[in-house]
Structure formats: C-alpha cells, structure tokens
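Exercise: predict the structure of this protein bound to 5,6-dihydroxy-NADP.
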Amino acid sequence: MQNFVFQNPTRIIFGQAAEKKVGEQTSLYGSKVLLHYGGGSIKKYGTYQSVIESLEEVGLEYIELGGVKPNPRLALVKKGIELVEQEDIDFILAVGGGSVIDSAKAIAVGACYEGDVWDFFAKDITIKKAMPVGTVLTIPAAGSESSTSAVITKLTGMYKKSISSELIRPKFAIMNPELTFTLPNYQTACGAVDIMAHVMERYFTNTKNVELTDRLCEATLKTIIDNVPRVLKDNQDYAARAEIMWAGNIAHNGLLDTGRVGDWASHGIEHELSAIYDVAHGAGLAVVFPAWMNYVYQHDLARFAQFAVRVWGIDPDLKDLDWTACQGIKKTKEFFSSLGMPVSLPELEIPADKFEEMAAKCTAAGPRGNFVPLTKEDVVKIYQSVLN
Ligand code: NZQ
Ligand code: ZN
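Solution:
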C-alpha cells in the first residue's frame, strides 16, 4: 500500500425528502444563488419546485441558468461566469447529474479568474480559487457530487477535457433516491456502467498489498450488479435505487483510491468518443472498458482472475489462469449488454475514420494509463477491436 492523504469534506445528506434541506444547507455558504440545471427534467418531475420552495423558505435570492446539455459545453459555462459577475452571485447550486455539476464547478473556477476558464482545461494551471458549489443529485453516475473533477466540452476543435482540484469539491450533496425514480432505463444503465468503470479504473492497479480497497471495490461492483437489474424492472424500487445512489458516490469519492494508483486509460479513450460523437459517457464506457480489458489483461492474469472469481463468481480453473481471467471480461461485457448498453462502435453509429485523431488527442500528453501505459498505436488498436 502506498502512503496517502484522504479527506472528503462533502457533506452527504441522503434519503427521502433530503432536497427539502437545500435552503438550510445553501444558507451556510451564500446569500445569492446561481441555480444551475439541465434540459428540463427537474421541472418536469417536481424537483425544481421543491428546491425553490426550500431556498425561498430561508430567504435566499436566486438567479436561474438552465440548459446544461449532457457532455456540458464551454459556451454555457462562460454565460454562467458572466451572470455570476453581473448579479453578484456568491454560491452555485447544481440540480441535476454530472453534466450540471461539472458545468457549475467550471463556472465556480472561471468566476474567480481574470483569463479564459478554458486555460485550466487546456494547460496544466493550478486552480487557486473557486466559488462554493452545492448539489442536488438526480442521477447516480459520474460521482461529481463529491469528486474533485469536472469535465467540459469545447465544440471548437471537439475537445472534452477535465480539471481537478480539492477546491471544486462540492460543499454538500443532497441525495434522495426517490428523485431517480424518473430516470429512463437507458440513463440508469449508463450511470451503472460509469459507476462500475470508476471502480474498475481503480481496481486494475500495479500497487501491491491493497487488500482492503480491493474488497471495497468488489463490494461496490457487486452492489451495482445485484441492484441495477432490479430497478430496470421496477423504476420505483427505493431500496435498490438507494444502494445504487450510495454506490455511485463511494465509487468516486476518493475512498477507493486510498493507497493505490488507478489506471484511467479507459476514461481517456471514452472521452474522445463523447467529444466528437456526443455519446453518453456511460454508453461509451460500455464499449471501451471490455475492449481495454481484453487488450491488457495478460499484464496481470492473477488480478484479472481475482476479479472474475470474486466479482463474477467464476469457478476458477487453477491450471488455466488465462481462461479464468477471460471469463471475468466476458461476464462484464455480457452484463453491460444485458442492461441495454452498446458493446461495439457500430451500435453507437461511430465509424472508423477518426481513430487516428482520437488516439492522438488521447495520448497528446504521453502514454495513457498506469496499469499498462498505452501509446497512440495501442489506443487505435483498442478502437479497432470494437468495430464489430
Ligand atoms: O438535462 P436533463 O433534462 O436534466 O436530463 C438529464 C440528461 O438528459 C437526464 N436526467 C438526469 N436526472 C434525471 C434525468 N432524467 C429523468 N429523471 C432524472 N432524475 O439524464 C441525462 C444525463 O444527465 P448527465 O448529467 O449528462 O449524466 P451523468 O451524471 O452521467 O453525467 C455525465 C457527465 O459527467 C462527466 C461525463 O464525462 C459526462 O460529461 N463525468 C464527470 C466526472 C466528475 N466530474 O467527477 C467523472 C466521470 O467519469 C465523468 O467523466
Ligand atoms: Zn466516468
């Protein structure tokens, strides 16, 4: 196990009617709020009404900025930064999923910076200051509600890039599983794949002696595997929705990173797909992750065999570690498929003509990933391996 520092200061307020606490929580940090949301699901399903009632109850002023798209865009971030300045806003409240929360985080950084906020995404500049952000989560997936990162798309040049800083960890995350009852099955499944990917990025490590975090990773994966099929059958299964929502947070709040080095190549490879083709992050990962596994598993057969046995319950063939390892990859891919997720590029209607460009962007800063560092040629081969 490696040395580590762990602190996650995001206050989690979890459970039924939790959104009614948003006014009280927000008033701890600000007096004039930017209420940031997406394409309208919160208005359609009543979350918006509960949130504004709670803000009004404690006398908070708010200015709205809706319209965040999945794979959130830089242009709206810039509009948010302008609004914050014009209206003297001192707190940003994101009501939605990873896209809304990431957009809020980018506004929080840009509003404290004289230059172009994209500088932080394009260059390796340290974030020195950010406004406080709070969240009401409506989809368990990205884990942005208590993570240190934000991912934004710049349409000019088709870039999807991230920033990371302790300063953008939200102050609080309000998580009521009932708010996720309205998710279409496709979005639930995308979220489940993303959650599993966050765990697997950490699980496939070269760090030795990480027994506790291995076991925590396995428990989180098994919780998703058991509960997602339940909610796809019954959208209002509170118990299962609650397990998924909490697992989504655990998967990406930093706990599973402790003492180990994660990989993160699959996320890099996927971000190039969503940058150009605007696919849902989870759907892109359902294609990329098993392909990455197939490409690298021989680097550590024992770890992949452990994954197969402990996560998927494969009866190991002790004389054939390769077979055992492959069974875990096969099960992962079959599970994604069973959720209605794509597992090949044609299912996402992605052609082969931009593999070179995507692989070049993905490896622009050097080989990608830590478990097996991948060159541009490796990344091209991974894209090619999922052409059918
Ligand atoms: O826009 P609205 O109308 O709200 O609809 C959204 C959106 O269309 C809908 N939705 C959300 N909650 C709903 C709902 N529909 C019905 N009922 C509800 N309760 O779901 C759609 C997807 O929302 P989005 O926010 O895009 O999903 P997600 O949370 O998966 O976020 C994806 C983004 O997060 C980034 C991804 O790259 C992607 O851009 N990520 C952010 C990370 C982070 N900041 O730590 C880490 C992740 O690895 C990821 O890269
Ligand atoms: Zn992700």
